[in-house]
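Q: Sequence in, structure out?
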Amino acid sequence: MERATLFALVTIIVVVYVFPYAFLVSTSLKPPADALAIPPTILPQRISLENYRNIATFPSVRQSFGNSLTIALLSTLITISLAVPAAYAVARFASLAGKIFLIAVLITRLIPPVSVGIPLFAIMRSLDLTDTHIGVALAHSTISVPLAIWLLASFMEGIPHELEEAARVDGCSRFGALFRIIIPVAAGGIAVTSVFVFLASWNEFLFALLLSSTSVKTAPIAIAEFRTQYGIQWGTMTSLSVLFSFPVIIFSLLMQKRIVAGMTMGAVKG
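A: Exactly. Output:
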């Protein structure tokens, strides 16, 4: 009885989460006229790839996807470069200042991004970084760095101190031990954190909207522009959304085992 109840709850949760995306895919496969039908139909009456063919008529879409990839990679590189030494210091020294630092990091994570949007825009404009890949990537890093520090600190706390001490005895400096011992051992955790950081940047909308105009417009912005004062182009929006989400889904499925292994790596210490 308990097994059947648990299976029923899991099924309901899966259906609730899967249905919106399934409806998105279904709408993208409908002819443009059927996408606007009232009442809407869940399954397409006739499967059509016209919406996907129409994407080729918008040259800026391809550039926006390239911008999203470039910015996500830059944001991941910046975030990991800052978070690894910070997490190492917090995990290894275990001082009161480190605990206060972690609390401060958590507080910054709780601040709504919209509340810092205008100050961030003013800073980037003063540095002449608006509408640049590095400017948007730095903005995305402000969201990802706190999360990355928390994740990596828990991973590094699970690494035995004896490994680093042995490296120090053999002549390694602290930085040498970090790069030669700690980072290779924590590679699984760093990989998992990199995946989360990349996805956060890939899906981010607000800062990309504030800091880009034409040159570095990302895919979420390009998709949103199909909602105009004359109506919503549901077919084009849904087909672009499917294409935008498809690489992430495939990547997550391929990395599933590594993600699970990395997330549980810091669960046992010693």
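The radius of gyration is 23 Å.
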